[in-house]
Write the structure tokens for this entry.
Amino acid sequence: MAKTGKFAVGVDLGGTNIKIGIVSEKGTIVKKISVKTQAEEGTKTVVKNIKKGIQEILKSNDYKIRGIGIGAPGVVDIKKGTVENPPNFPGWGRVNLIKAVAKDFKYKVHVENDANAAAIGEMIFGAGKKYDSFVMVTLGTGVGGGIILRNKMYRGEFGAAGEIGHITIDYKGPECKCGSFGCIEAFVGNQYLVKRVKEQLQDHKDSKIWELIQNNPENLSPRIIQNASEKGDEFAKSIIKDMGLHLGAALASVSNLLDISTFIMGGGVAGFGKPLFDVIRTSVTNRVLKPLKHRVKVLPAKLKNDAGIKGASALVFYRSS
Amino acid sequence: MAKTGKFAVGVDLGGTNIKIGIVSEKGTIVKKISVKTQAEEGTKTVVKNIKKGIQEILKSNDYKIRGIGIGAPGVVDIKKGTVENPPNFPGWGRVNLIKAVAKDFKYKVHVENDANAAAIGEMIFGAGKKYDSFVMVTLGTGVGGGIILRNKMYRGEFGAAGEIGHITIDYKGPECKCGSFGCIEAFVGNQYLVKRVKEQLQDHKDSKIWELIQNNPENLSPRIIQNASEKGDEFAKSIIKDMGLHLGAALASVSNLLDISTFIMGGGVAGFGKPLFDVIRTSVTNRVLKPLKHRVKVLPAKLKNDAGIKGASALVFYRSS
């Protein structure tokens, strides 16, 4: 017998794995699989793997499926359905994922940049449900973002809006891989953060981090910094404090420009938890214009595990609502 | 006989003068007056002066007036019509200008923050006519802004959006009167600029600026810096180059966040002309993300003299279109 309620297939296209789930309209994953992306095998193989995965999850299911949502890295044209040059997908070029997938299934297919899908996921299922307008910030290798304005995704002129990672907080600051200087990503993006801490670590021989990395700086990761901080290490604490100060400066610029005062932070680095959120909150509040000060909210994302699948499935509910 | 075409009354409420004009739908001022604001006399006097001025300009006119637009400093609630705490209006508090003015005239009254009115003026009459989306930047005592997105004013959650002046370009930079640090206004706003140049001037005893200010730093102004630069003064040129670098960093953040690539610059400091525009353009282009690089445009505002009157009158044509 068919299960009641509405469901969607969410596809989280990652560089290593394609995670696929069937998600209820309340955001519950009722079935989940993962297949290898095989990005190095080229576009055709990746597309084949996506379709194989969807076929697999739809096999003998009783759910009323309303559509398929795909969250993909890279530049996405949501109308055409094209995904362009996702990082870590060699030789990808431009691929029309809607066309490629829709012809094999009877469902409507939606595709969206993964940072935007995360924002839509929080809006439909997560911490953004209560807010008409918010800015989603995803902290990871890079710093991604998505702007939700009056319950709609803000896309800008050509759909590329929300690049919060490339807001400058110090125009003479460290070089960013985008070619500019002092972007917030160049301060708090995983790679930059780890690189900077590695350098500074040489001046902090008494830090507990040394023990946690077994004296090998190659073992350094955001998680280790977090662990050291939880053990009371002053150097690790100062790093988290700086991250909050930096993020707060970027978010204050966003808030002053857009008159949006709710921020939802997700991604790996957000695992730093309360200590990081506290300093971000203080930093933004200190920096925004007076009318915004009492309104600023910095909240943790609610979709944690499988946020990618949930965000992708949320596209189906968002676009059909 | 009545003149053909549509006309509007534009009221530019300034701290010293209230400038009022009758403006055609093409943006031509057909009649213009100026009355003293008398801000120091308090709210009632200011409101009386506004109404006196409007009565005066409407006296024995044959134009088909479609409405009255008022551009006011301070926080404006365009729906209610209230203007709150405009700087340089002592004891103002909150005044409903729509109510106060509309009861004496048979026309619909619109009120708008003056920075937003400037943006709407450029959209309806000026350099923004050709562009669906652009960001207006007004350089003066402060740095103001307005965001036009798909031919609509972007207002944010509570109507306070567009505070470009308070985008940080250096989170550890000079203190801004807003309480934050390193806001672009604290770099290029007139007062801050003049103050900084005064300090630096002591190290540039050979600068042509000294002659132009007759050796009295109190005479320093943006215009003097511009004059010195036109005379080939290296120090003055370096100031303009820095301004361009600073503004470019702020605008690049805006462009990356909003995916808007057209900037229209107005206000006094924009009088620096081509040399300033060239460096701003280079700085933004160097700093924006790759897909934006070939799209970035930095244009001078078209409404120069009486931009305030024209912007205010544009509210009438914008809101009734």
